[in-house]
UniProtKB/TrEMBL annotation:
Organism: Paenibacillus lutrae
Protein name: Adenosylmethionine-8-amino-7-oxononanoate aminotransferase
Cofactor(s) needed for function: pyridoxal 5'-phosphate
Pathway listed: Cofactor biosynthesis; biotin biosynthesis; 7,8-diaminononanoate from 8-amino-7-oxononanoate (SAM route): step 1/1
Function: Catalyzes the transfer of the alpha-amino group from S-adenosyl-L-methionine (SAM) to 7-keto-8-aminopelargonic acid (KAPA) to form 7,8-diaminopelargonic acid (DAPA). It is the only aminotransferase known to utilize SAM as an amino donor.
Name of the gene encoding the protein in the UniProt record: bioA
Any one Gene Ontology cellular component term annotated for this protein: cytoplasm
Length: 447
């Protein structure tokens, strides 16, 4: 008789098509099937325990199965699981919007809900576009993005995406965007200062020539996530923001990955006191519990849509589950818990702890660069440390390190040759120590 695991594995193989996964590889491997979670641990159906070393794709804040979040969702479940936000409201959605307006960078007072980071980005793109249209400046239709940008997988988000492997195949069906270089210091001959100068020069060029055709610039502030956990040189975000302001182009900050303490402050924009016109949040908003995202807008943006019904300036956009009460209740409880546990401030000390522990990697032969901002860590592995020659795609170096980490009891997912470490913010130093031990051992064993 086949085991519970074997039955599930067979059904999984027969019916589930996994995201961002080459199914031929996957179907020839033993699938990991998670059954439950507790704190920073996940357990598979065979009872094996794993540290959640990538916060279930960068979103878990407090760990799994958190009593306070469970309780908030259960309480809300006893009232109503869902009702629409189209022309009516629900209690948690109102309370959460007020809370977000309070903690977000200055001026972002209006909250438009959605259900994933990508839909939050679609909303920001459409809002920016219609903002200019409603204001009678309908030539401002273009967007600026950055090399290696990732903003999600829906068509608008892919249009402003710039990772060739993910996005090029779709190019013929997308709207074109102006792509400027991202300041990738490690891969720039002149280092951080020169990389930043190139970025700002390119931005200035586009803006000087075409500002009247451009609606907005979209950026992952301070850290480019899926592009390889690449840190912006200090001051760069502030310069980008001030150029956008100077030339009358809206700034969209995509904080889906960086928000809610992940990059060391509540929002990555807080590092440089930047207040964007539109802010996209998701992932950690609910502590990583439920699919809620939001696009925050300034009063100025909101006012461009605020008109007589007959003028047809309405933002005609919405999703069935927009403002879902269960999700909003989870988000409120998560923010409450962040505050009670002082997670952002305590996280700063833990980030230093992580940095010190990772110093053990510095002298090793295939470590190109260890990059970190807060709880976002990327370790770029290189074939040749001196010349910085990259491993080839065929080496599968990141995948092999992740596989080794899984054998040793920690889950993570690489970005090409970059090993990713993104533990839940609530991890204790003891847990971080154990996770880093596995991380280092996996890298040493494979390289
Ligand atoms: N934007 C950024 C910066 C992201 O990192 C991601 C996901 O990783 C997204 C958008 C898309 O979010 P979602 O996967 O919730 O659609």
């Amino acid at each position: 008789m086949s085991s519970h695991y074997e039955r599930l594995a067979a059904m999984n193989k027969a019916h589930v098509w996994h995201p961002f996964t080459q199914m031929k590889d996957y179907n020839n491997s033993d699938p990991l099937i998670i059954e439950r979670g507790e704190g920073v641990m996940l357990y598979d159906v065979q009872g094996r325990a794993y540290y959640d070393g990538f916060s279930s794709v960068w979103l878990n804040v407090h760990g799994h199965n958190v009593p306070e979040l469970n309780q908030a969702i259960t309480d809300q479940l006893g009232r109503v699981a869902h009702s629409t936000l189209l022309g009516m409201a629900n209690v948690p959605a109102i309370e959460l919007a007020a809370k977000l307006a309070q903690i977000a960078p200055a001026g972002l007072t209006k909250v438009f809900y959605s259900d994933s980071g990508a839909t939050g980005v679609e909303i920001a793109i459409k809002m920016a576009f219609q903002y200019w249209y409603n204001r009678g400046q309908s030539s401002k239709t273009g967007f600026i993005t950055m090399n290696q940008a990732y903003h999600g997988d829906t068509i608008g988000a892919v249009s402003v995406g710039a990772i060739p492997l993910y996005h090029d195949v779709f190019r013929p069906m997308l709207f074109p965007a102006h792509t400027i270089p991202y300041p990738y210091a490690y891969r720039h001959e002149g280092g951080a200062a020169a990389a930043m100068e190139d970025t700002l020069d390119a931005l200035r060029d586009v803006l000087e020539q075409r500002a009247d055709e451009i609606a907005a610039l979209i950026v992952e502030p301070m850290v480019q996530g899926a592009g390889g956990i690449i840190l912006m040189p200090p001051g760069c975000l502030r310069e980008i923001a001030s150029l956008c302001r100077k030339y009358g182009v809206l700034l969209i900050a995509d904080e889906v990955a960086t928000g809610f303490g992940r990059a060391g402050e509540m929002f990555a924009c807080d590092h440089e006191q930047v207040s964007p016109d539109l802010l996209v949040i998701g992932k950690g908003l609910t502590g990583g519990y439920l699919p809620v995202a939001a696009t925050l807008a300034t009063g100025d943006i909101f006012d461009a849509f605020y008109a007589e019904y007959e003028e047809q300036k309405t933002f005609f956009h919405g999703h069935s589950f927009t403002g879902n009460p269960l999700g909003c209740a989870a988000a409120l409880a998560s923010l409450d818990l962040m505050q009670k546990r002082n997670l952002i401030e305590e996280g700063k000390g833990k980030a230093v702890f992580i940095r010190q522990k990772l110093e053990a990697l510095a002298g090793r032969p295939h470590i190109g660069e260890v990059r970190q901002l807060g709880f976002m860590i990327g370790i770029e592995l290189v074939k040749d440390k001196r010349t910085r020659e990259a491993f080839s795609w065929k080496d599968r170096i990141g995948v092999r390190v992740s596989q080794r980490a899984r054998e040793l009891g920690m889950l993570t997912r690489p970005l090409g040759n970059v090993v990713v470490f993104m533990p839940p913010l609530a991890s204790t130093e003891e847990q971080l120590d154990a996770m880093i031990h596995i991380l280092i051992r996996s890298i040493v064993d494979i390289t």
